[in-house]
Amino acid sequence: MLGATLKQIRDQTSVKIDVPRRVSVSGGNGVANGGSPHTSGATSPVFADDDDEPTVPISVIGPELLAFEARDLIKQIIASKRARATQRVRDIPPHIVPFVKARYSTFVEAAEGGDAELLLKSAEREVTVSGDREVVLRVIEAIKSYIATISASLTSVKISLPKRQHRLLVGDAVNEILASGKCVVSVPPPEESTEEIVIWGKVEDLGSGVTAVMSRANSQYTHEFPLPGPIALSHQLLMYIHYTGYAHTLAAAHPGVLVFIPELAAKSEASVLNVDLVGEKSLVDVAVRQVSELMGKLNGATKDVSVDWLVHKVIQGKHAKR
User: Fold this and answer.
1) How many Å apart are CA 99 and CA 97, to the nearest integer?
2) For the whole prediction, is pTM greater than 0.85?
3) Which residues, other chains included, contact 23 with Cβ-Cβ below 8 Å and sequence gap of 6+?
4) 35 found inside a domain
5) CA pair distance 70, 6, nearest whole angstrom
């Protein structure tokens, strides 16, 4: 409401509208610190669109009739703003997010045709609902209620699978397993050494959930290609693969084969660095031969060198791909 809107009201009513800085706002007595007690008109809170935002008291100063006119104009704007709201459900447990995503249509139905926009950010583990205040509150309540209900009804089982098969249980696989087995699978980050995965579901669904997970884990052939050592050499080869985009080149040359390489950040913790190839065995075998040929060509062709920090930016700029 600040800026052009306040200027329009000032020009129309010839009153002074004082909006204090947030740092000077007192703790809820309706008067700004340092404000004058003899102001003519009314002091009204300004409510933000997002319920998480704090309110700010403002002062209207001028002849009484004009001050009341300005106050009424401000209240009309506040009322129109307050008719809309944005609320969020944050910090949803990671294993609950897929269940919430699968119920998206149900939450849309909770709006009962009202004005509400839902946005699920899986990575941030939060749902944002914007629209008519009454509709938003109804949808938010439906989401919170479902999360509480599903959280209380879930149990888990842990099983061990080779790390190479974990690749087959992430991304779209999570939704497929939920659709077929009514369970959600949680996989540890690649840099962690544990091979345990966790399957979440209702007691009566865990059997079908385990079946769905194992079916997916065994659905394709996986091959771990360890980069030649010692580990210092493996680091050099990994950097070459990253900076030349070799993983994309390899995948493009072998349709049907998925190529996974370690993150550069993981190199300091890993003792062995693997290139994982996933797909039909016959296709993967051909891709493995190409990787093996590249490693042979790179034998003795990489080296760590020290470069003066003054020329780092030059190297990282236009010469980075050379």
Assistant:
1) 5
2) no
3) none
4) yes
5) 10
Q: Is residue 317 part of a domain?
A: no
Instruction: State the residue for tokens 């693969």.
Output: 241
Which string of b and e fits 116-149 if b means at least 16 CB within 10 Å? bebebeeeebbbbbbbebebbebbbebbeebbee
Q: Are residues 133 and 159 in the same domain?
A: no
Query: What is the C-alpha to C-alpha distance for residues 225 and 274, in angstroms, rounded to an integer?
Result: 5
- 3-state secondary structure labels for all residues of the chain: CCCHHHHHHHHHHCCEEECCCHHHCCCCCCCCCCCCCCCCCCEEEECCCECCCCCEEEEEECCHHHHHHHHHHHHHHHHHHHCEEEEEECCCCCCCHHHHHHCHHHHHHHCCCCCEEEEEECCCCEEEEEEEHHHHHHHHHHHHHHHHHHHHHCEEEEEECCHHHHHHHCCHHHHHHHHHHCCEEECCCCCCCCCEEEEEECHHHHHHHHHHHHHHHCCCEEEEEECCCCHHHHHHHHHHHHHHCHHHHHHHHCCCCEEECCCHHHHHCCCCCEEEEEECHHHHHHHHHHHHHHHHHCCCCCCCCCCCHHHHHHHHCCCCCC
pLDDT in tens, 253-277: 999 999 988 887 654 456 788 899 9
Report which of residues 242 and 2 the model is more confident about: 242
Residue 108 counted as domain residue = yes
Centre a 10 Å sphere on the Cβ of residue 300 and count the other Cβ atoms it contains.
Answer: 7
Q: Which domain holds residue 266?
A: 221-297
Q: From its phi and psi, is residue 21 left (phi > 0), alpha (psi between -120 and 50) or beta?
A: beta
Residue range 174-203, pLDDT digits in tens: 999 999 999 999 999 877 888 999 999 999
Token pair 């009739």 is at which residue? 65
